[in-house]
Amino acid sequence: MSDFIRPTAFLTLIVVFLLMVLVRVYVGSASEYRKANEALKMDDKISAINHYGRSIKWYAPLSPWVKRSIDKLWEIGENSDKDDPVGILAIRIIRSSLYAARGPFTPYKSQIEKADEWLSVCLSDADNGPDKEDVESVLKSNTGPNRKWSFAVGVGFVGWILSVFAFIFFVFSEGESKAKPKKAIALGIVVGLFYTLWICGLFLT
How many CB atoms lie within 10 A of CB 82? Predict the structure, then answer.
């Protein structure tokens, strides 16, 4: 394989891999949204809420199904009585799913703030309910996954996969039975570093 074709093939492989990941995320979100709508038609609100939440967790920038799932959950929550646990669950799922989907940044942060306000009013208005300030304090003290380590999980996994592909492409040359020692050592270290980052992220996130 020529010096030009080999890097081109590697870059093509990277693009194809990233597109496959992106398509999987979009398809996953769309599938969960469809299942939620089917459950809602059968008046199974609990299943619908859970599927909408899963659709949100398949977050990707510009995904239309994430926003539609959020809107559907708001519709369920606001059309329920204030003391209806199903309505409360729908709003809780909005904030918990968005927190679960966050990485370097939190998507739809304004929706989380809106959900916090709705829950604080709803829960404090209940009979023998806590003070609104206490509920707000608990909601704002959310202890979700560590953002930096969550990001490290993604970077480590993608980096590990791509570095393994790079090892295969650049260490072994077409027509040569032996690997190239210097490239093997360098890329082997890169593979190990990304793998370590991925595993550490899984444990520390």
Answer: 14
10-residue mean pLDDT profile of the chain (205 residues): values are: 63 80 90 96 95 94 92 93 86 90 82 88 66 63 67 84 82 61 85 89 74
Show Cβ contacts of residue 21 under 8 Å, excluding neighbours closer than 6 positions. Answer: 158
* Whether residue 183 sits in one domain with residue 114: no
Whole-number pLDDT of residue 158: 84
Task: Give the three-state DSSP class for 131.
Answer: coil
| DSSP summary character for residue 102 | -
Residues 140 and 161 in one domain: no
Kindly report the pTM of this predicted structure: 0.71
Q: Are 102 and 142 in contact (CB under 8 A)?
A: no
Report how far residue 1's alpha carbon sits from residue 115's, in angstroms, rounded to the nearest whole number: 56
Same domain? For 189 and 120 the reply is no
Q: Total domain count for the chain? A: 2
Dig out the tokens for 198 from the structure.
Answer: 């991925």
Looking at the fold, whether 89 and 128 belong to one and the same domain comes out as yes
